[in-house]
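PROTOCOL LOG
Step 1. Enter all chains and additional molecules of the complex.
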Amino acid sequence: MAAPAPNTQQEMRRRNLARVLHAVADGGPRSRAAVAARIGLTRTAVSTLVDELLGAGLLVELGPGRSGAVGRPGTALALSDRGPCGIGAEIGVDHLAVCAVDLRGEVRARTAMDAANRDSDPGPVLEQLARLVGEVADEARGLGLRPAGLAVAVPGLVARGTTTVVQAPNLGWTDLDLAPHLARTGVLGSGSGTGTAVCSIDNEANLGALAELWLGGHTPPSGDFVHVSAEIGIGAAIVVDGELLRGTRGFAGELGHVPVRPEGRPCACGGIGCLEQYAGEEAVLRAAGLDPRATAAEHPGPGARIDLLATRAKEGDSAVLDALAEAGSALGTALTGAVNLLDPQTVVLGGALARLAPWLLPSLEHELGRRLAGPPPVSVSSLGADGPLLGAAHSVVRAVLDDPLAHRA
Amino acid sequence: MAAPAPNTQQEMRRRNLARVLHAVADGGPRSRAAVAARIGLTRTAVSTLVDELLGAGLLVELGPGRSGAVGRPGTALALSDRGPCGIGAEIGVDHLAVCAVDLRGEVRARTAMDAANRDSDPGPVLEQLARLVGEVADEARGLGLRPAGLAVAVPGLVARGTTTVVQAPNLGWTDLDLAPHLARTGVLGSGSGTGTAVCSIDNEANLGALAELWLGGHTPPSGDFVHVSAEIGIGAAIVVDGELLRGTRGFAGELGHVPVRPEGRPCACGGIGCLEQYAGEEAVLRAAGLDPRATAAEHPGPGARIDLLATRAKEGDSAVLDALAEAGSALGTALTGAVNLLDPQTVVLGGALARLAPWLLPSLEHELGRRLAGPPPVSVSSLGADGPLLGAAHSVVRAVLDDPLAHRA
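Step 2. Run joint prediction.
Step 3. Record the structure below.
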């Protein structure tokens, strides 16, 4: 009646293939011997694993003349620039964007378009997105790449482990499973006949934080940070020991609805005095004396209102400066709560907040300083508005590196 | 130059020994065949592992006549009631307590005493604690148990991965390494000559949450919950996927210093309008018209002021009822922030908050309800004030179950 022993050899091999790939990914071209030394396996074992990865088209040999920093003779190994690639997509309130990233982490194809997705019918939006995905996937294939999966960033809550958008307030979408819409196009999925294609949907703030973790220059050594970003709303993501904290339902990181003026303005979420009512795009426009709807009509497109605020702040517009200072202060109060609860090593501002950081940071840091004995440093992401899109594409690439057997041609 | 292959056989054996022990720990007495079926190893492999654990005195055979619920003939295995035991200790503001818990999770020896540890000289307090630890360890040895380690719960911040209390405001201790004080007694440590003895120090709120996770009846299946407790201050701990979230420095879970009235009362921590100023013991006493110092002098000892508040609330004392309602409301505001950030499956009230729950819960739940679309359920721990002490002793027992080889005689 005893269950059969699990195939632990197979599991160990799978894990070791991933370790070899990560060793090459993290350190650039390396010899077999250097990989073996790094991951602590024998050179013989590594050679067998490398042969399998070469055969699967995930690694390539650069030839003895290009062994780079490797100190001893030996063929240098590198990640393939023709193997699997990750397709990332972003549904913004004002735009759609798609890109393809190869195993080396390089963006190889990319497209974007302005779009009026606020309070939209999801069908046409997703059809348009699927067309863009198809274009980018075709372009990638033309470069010898093989799309291994699609990840989509959305400005809303996604149920953990599913492809369902539970609520995307600015899009006006609720309880919508995106997978059938995107699969129906036949761009990816089993219909394409080339490898395993996965489709994942995630919150844009989560993917922006992962991009910062994987690509940004501000991730602390401990891998513990809070990433705060903004498009129309305020989004945040909590990274603990290098892993995203998702929460039971997948809704963690809702810094925008932490009460900062507990008996203040009612919020669209049903709450009272939420951060978003003091630091969200509409709140800042209103505090600066601008009508949010009229301003959006006059300045459509991704980042246009943020550009407007930045321009006016640079010009010294005191209403805008006061509005941004007030937003920074509200951010500081909400982050005080987050720091007390989470004890992160740093706070990173991304997206629109990175763009507006020069005018938000003084009041934000003042607030942290008057509320916390040892406030963590606040840094500004250099990824800007690209974070969620890059994070989406890289999440597919990471899935390939983590389990190469599942993604060979 | 390749590094030697790691001894993966050894690692796998160590892991499998732990799996066998946990299989017996989680399910009560079981046959070898039942253990094999549960953990997916062959019966032969399990028999070898079991023999080793029997030899090390961690498992015992109950004999064929006592195989209990096991359906087929076979000797039932159980955790030993004479093997290693965990010693847990607690330094409270008003008391000291020590207990010994065996591998089966049963408290086998226990002692406690009232103590005036507020603003104390740590030397004498730790000497007294060491004496109590010595008494309980001797009693455990008399029962055939072998103290495998000591874990101490303290009302303060402990630097992650160390035995140093960075700050315990109510004790008045700062930057104090407890290990030398406790090792000096010779009760535990290499001087005792019986097995590996470890000494760990942790925040009482962390250990209370772990006790709830391991022993309480309110841990949700996801293992995601926020545990809020109180002794003199408000403590909280965040459990994610069954693991404590510690934070970079080890200071996570400081719910007591989340701003709930951002421009409200100054707090001893240097912050403004912290939860502790509205829901901590002193704040509630003051709000109820009682002088905290005078009341503490009149009602010394662990839990005495909480008893007083509970008694008066039961009698319908409107000042006390109002004070507790206000505290519940402040707790609800702070927890709204925590729920937005962490998306826990439940909130559990422990310690003094469990005792006062009948009068805190209505306003607490009202606050969550008016601020959150889908507030998580709030439950009340049944461990009461024992949580941190039990969590401490059980943390040692868990360490033995997780790595049996390190703890054999």
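Step 4. Note key features.
The first helix of chain B runs from residue 8 to 27.
Chain B has 14 helices and 15 strands.
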